Amino acid sequence: MSARLHLVRHGQTPSNVAGALDTALPGAPLTELGREQARMVGAELAGSGISPSVILSSEAARARETAGLIDDAMGLTTQAVPGMYEVQAGSYEMRTGEEALLAYNRVVRDWLEDGDLASCLPGGESALDVQDRAMPVISELRESYLDNGIDVVLVVHGTLMRMIAVFAGAVPSQWALANRIPNCGVIELAPDGGGWSCERWGDHLGRPQF
């Protein structure tokens, strides 16, 4: 089996529990449940037979902590990767309540359902902004690791993970819109010719049927 990119969402945080749009760095740490989720996905990855050389993460506190707990199970080192933070909420940062969540989700829907990649919240990011900062990192990871037979575990954020999979051409945009990723859920991408295929999406083990 060829080397693969394992995108892992961080564990639960107090902001997740409160329904807060926590997207700016450094962000909240993990809850005790979040730490247990990280330990569980670490044990799963350690037992799966993959061969990463390092556990990578975004610079957010919750992602770094999740990566460290995965590292405890795999016996590797961790490294934060600049530019892989969550899609920014702008003026809605740390706001709670239905209005804020609907506004954030409406922008994601604009991108994935309507194809309006320039849509953004006030002071936030467009899909084009996210693509410009995230996809060069993904290309570099493919060239430096996967093309040399080394698996990559990258702990990041739910909306960012879905957008990466769409930008990579691995899943249809409607699939990414309809299928969110839970805390410590995994998206597994494999090089496929010059592109990518999706080999796992959360609880969909094996290649999802679109």
Describe the protein.
This protein has helices at 14-18, 32-46, 61-74, 98-112, 127-144, 158-167, 173-178, and strands spanning 5-9, 52-57, 78-80, 151-156, 186-192, 195-201, 204-205. It is of the alpha/beta class and 210 residues long. It has a 7-stranded mixed sheet, sandwiched between helices. The chain is globular and about 45 Å long. The mean pLDDT is 95.
- The strand line-up of the biggest sheet is 3-2-4-1-5-6-7
The percentage helix is: 25-40%
Q: Mind summarizing the main beta sheet?
A: 7 strands, mixed
User: Number of helix segments?
Assistant: 7
**What is the H-and-E element order?**
EHHEHEHHEHHEEE
Rounded to the nearest angstrom, the radius of gyration is 16 Å
What is the rounded distance between the termini? 22 Å
- Which spans have pLDDT < 50 for at least 5 consecutive residues? none
Percent strand equals 15-25%
Going by helix content, strand content and strand pairing, the class is: alpha/beta
Label the overall shape: globular
In total, the number of strands is: 7
Compute the average pLDDT: 95
